[in-house]
Design a protein that fits this description.
The chain is of the alpha+beta class. It contains 2 helices and 3 strands.
């Protein structure tokens, strides 16, 4: 996904939040990327009360993968948003099958 000067998210070790993926600069963008980009969380999830919150830092809606297509990133945006909505809907205790289906690592 494309990152463009948005927030760089971090999850402290003492936080109940989880980083679902981390960012790394691609070869073309490595020179211009901020030094703190590598290892920053791309998607953060935390349970809150009876619900769940997700924060997404990069821009899936503007990613083209180098292709000149009429609607850049539309398919990727749809997949990312569908999964984010499903994870948020799963909540902290209910619907754990959603996390299994989305291939999130099991908690020990």
């Amino acid at each position: 996904m494309r990152y463009h000067n948005g927030p760089l998210l971090g999850v402290p070790k003492s936080s109940p939040a989880e980083s679902l993926c981390n960012m790394t600069a691609c070869e073309e963008g490595a020179v211009a990327a901020p030094w703190s980009l590598n290892g920053s969380a791309g998607v953060v999830m935390q349970n809150y009360g009876g619900g769940r919150v997700l924060a997404i830092s990069p821009h899936p809606e503007s990613t083209q993968d180098g292709l000149l297509v009429p609607e850049p990133g539309k398919e990727r945006l749809r997949r990312v948003l569908q999964r984010a909505v499903l994870l948020a809907a799963a909540g902290p205790a209910a619907h754990s099958w959603i996390e299994v289906e989305m291939h999130l690592p099991a908690k020990c």
